[in-house]
From TrEMBL:
Residues spanning the signal sequence: 1-17
Listed name of the protein: Peptidase A1 domain-containing protein
Any Gene Ontology CC annotation: lysosome
SUPFAM superfamilies reported in the protein's UniProt record: Acid proteases (SSF50630)
InterPro entries noted in UniProt: Aspartic_peptidase_A1, PEPTIDASE_A1, Peptidase_aspartic_dom_sf
Organism from which the protein derives: Teladorsagia circumcincta (Brown stomach worm)
């Protein structure tokens, strides 16, 4: 008896929900490229050297390894819009305080005004060779610095999206 009203409520919620799509672009991962080019062993040696010889008086944030990223998407930040290629992940939760738009200019975009994002001032040399400009966190509060709300959760709290997202990928 209680299932019918719940099913109707879920159907109405689904029908009213906005759908925002960010086209993902398949790229060759940096690890695959380095293995093919014979430079992976040198990269690993450099990476280990940088980690072991880091001066501890500087703030240090352990960085995740994104060498296996194979899909990236576009987001735009700011006014006027500036387009960036981003790796979408569920670990990081911070993107600065500006307008973040999921998608490319002139497409249906999920717009989140006054969204906080982080900008690294110092990165290992390996990040300069990444095929993307940053990492957009779709993660949870537990992955975000204190006092920040991840972009997707911010959009949910403002009523811009339903409290779910999905990734649909077709086979290449």
């Amino acid at each position: 008896a209680m299932r019918l009203p719940l099913a109707l409520l879920a159907l109405v919620g689904y029908a009213l929900a906005g759908v925002y799509q960010v086209r993902l672009v398949k790229i060759e991962s940096q690890r695959t490229r380095m293995i093919r080019d014979g430079t992976y062993a040198h990269h690993s040696k450099d990476k280990n050297y940088c980690t072991l010889n880091h001066r501890r008086e500087e703030p240090y944030e352990r960085v995740n390894d994104y060498l296996d990223v194979e899909y990236i998407g576009n987001i735009t930040i700011g006014t006027p819009e500036q387009e960036f290629r981003y790796c979408f992940g569920t670990v990081s939760g911070v993107v600065g305080i500006d307008r973040v738009r999921f998608g490319s200019p002139r497409t249906d975009q999920l717009v989140i005004p006054r969204c906080k994002f982080g900008q690294a001032e110092k990165l290992p040399p390996s990040f300069a060779r990444q095929p993307f400009d940053g990492i957009l966190g779709l993660g949870f509060y537990s992955f975000s610095p204190i006092g920040t709300t991840p972009p997707f959760i911010e959009a949910m709290l403002r009523g811009l999206v339903s409290p779910m997202f999905t990734v649909f990928m077709k086979q290449d």
